Amino acid sequence: MNERAVFATRFGAIATTVGSAVGLGNIWRFPYEAGVHGGGAFMICYLIFVFLIGVPLLCAEFCMGRGTRSNIFGAYRKLGGGRIARVAGPLGIVASLLILSFYSVVAGWTVEYCISSATGSLDFSNTTAGHGQFVDLTTGWRPMIWTIIFLFINFMILICGVTKGIERASNILMPLLFLLLVAFCINSFFMPGFADGINFLFTPDFSKISSSVLLGAMGQAFFSLSLGLGCMMTYGSYFNDRNRLGRTAATTAILDSMVAILAGVIIFPAVFSFDLSPEAGPTLVFEVLPYIFNQLPGGMIWSTLFFLLLFLASLTSTVSMSEISITYFCEEKHMTRRNATILSSVIALVGGVLCAMSFGPLSDFTIFGMTIFSLFDYLSSNICLPIGGFICSLFVGWWVDKKFLRDQLTDFGKFRFPLYRPLLLCLRWLCPAAIFLIFLNSIGLL
Ligand code: PFF
User: Fold this and answer.
1) Which atom of ligand 1 is nearest to the CA of 230?
2) Residues of 189-221 as b/e, b for ≥16 C-beta within 10 angstroms?
3) Where are the alpha helices (DSSP H) in 243-384?
4) What is the structure's pLDDT at 128?
5) Per residue in 245-261, pLDDT tens?
6) Ligand 1: which residue has its CA nearest to atom 9?
7) Quick one: which of 279, 277, 278, 274 has its CA closest to 290?
8) What is the pLDDT of residue 124?
9) Which domains does the chain carry?
10) What is the ipTM metric for this complex?
């Protein structure tokens, strides 16, 4: 994407931002995290974090991006935080590459499932088949090959500069994915486990709130909103001057949470209907969804369409996260865009292959009790992104000139932004304090 490009319309800006936010994080990661962390308790914490930490931070990243028309490094530097850029920048790059690595593995599964659905080779007719089929499809060399293929497609899109094409396609395909999710939700209503599933997801059992639930929910909010690593800053730098940043932030958060909730409403009734365990972890959605398709008339078509759209949703997210390291290598290390894209892709390829092997030959290799796949996920979502958000909220809340912030939020006084004071309060106190306390809590110091 050309750094000085500007989205022509408000719709284009929102669609692209939502395109980055909506992806596997909503449909794959949210249900599995909610399943592992007790359902309702996780859900309520997640929503609180999205709206009390996520939306203010989205505003902060958008302001920094649009006000400086720069990537994460340039944005901090132009606003007088040259030293901070040297911490926040590399942290964002590392996080984006870690995420790209494990994300590509899961995106590779979507390609595999899409092709298996289209060729009719998916069989989920009984309750042991779901897991067995997943193991068949994701062990050995196959996931590695799909990861490599996915990263290659991502690479070609970036190198051929057809990002715009992907964005235009996603303007049509994302609403289609949304409609498909609504249709599956209606189908959930007729499942025998509907009441149990909904209960699990929406009834908060406050006794289940623990440090790991809080950390997991915060990590999920950051991951899902693509926050804390400079992605939304870069996208903010493409917004035109008439974009109402506060509204764009709120719209992104609302749509993103809606997709996650829809995914939960689809998955959990099926989990309870088919007597599966909500705590299956990263494999949950891939083991459960095919049962649902099997129940539907024309299941093969639904399944193919769904995995195809999920694959495209993953691509709009990986393209956005790749931009972070590419712009860094171009602007800070003075590489050509082509070389920068090759370097980022090679790093992600090495990481991706290691993550893919976590489900096969390296499944017994663990660090801190986690496989490489889970470690990359945990380190990026639960550690790097919240630290990035912590730095950003303090920087914008305390350091950045308040006139700059006000001008960005009101388009130089052209319209009102009535939530300026609450926003500042969140950025100065609430976000940093919440992130800090959750970290202390999770390392046992609170
Ligand atoms: N928000 C994306 C999702 O929920 O799938 C994942 C993501 C995209 C994370 C871009 C980080 C990022 F920079």
Assistant:
1) 13
2) eebebbebbbebbeebeeeebeeebbbbbbbbb
3) 245-273, 284-295, 299-332, 337-357, 372-378
4) 64
5) 999 999 999 999 999 99
6) 226
7) 274
8) 67
9) 10-442 (1.10.4160)
10) 0.99
pLDDT tens per residue, range 248-295:
999 999 999 999 999 999 999 999 998 889 998 898 999 898 888 888
Ligand 1 centre distance from Cα of residue 11 (Å): 20
Whether pTM exceeds 0.90: yes
Which among 57, 102, 226 is the best mutation to test ligand 1's pocket, defined by most ligand atoms within 8 Å of the CB? 226
Nearest CA residue ID for atom 4, ligand 1: 25
Cβ contacts of 416 within 8 Å, gap of 6 or more: 410
Output the ligand 1 site: residues, CB below 6 A: 20-21, 23-26, 96, 99, 223-224, 226, 229, 231, 317, 320-321
Taking CA atoms only, the protein residue closest to ligand 1 atom 7 is 226
**Residue 338, SS3?**
helix
> Is residue 427 over pLDDT 50?
yes
Instruction: Give the atom of ligand 1 at the shortest distance from the alpha carbon of 256.
Output: 4
Give which of 46, 67, 50, 60 is closest to 424, Cα–Cα. Answer: 60
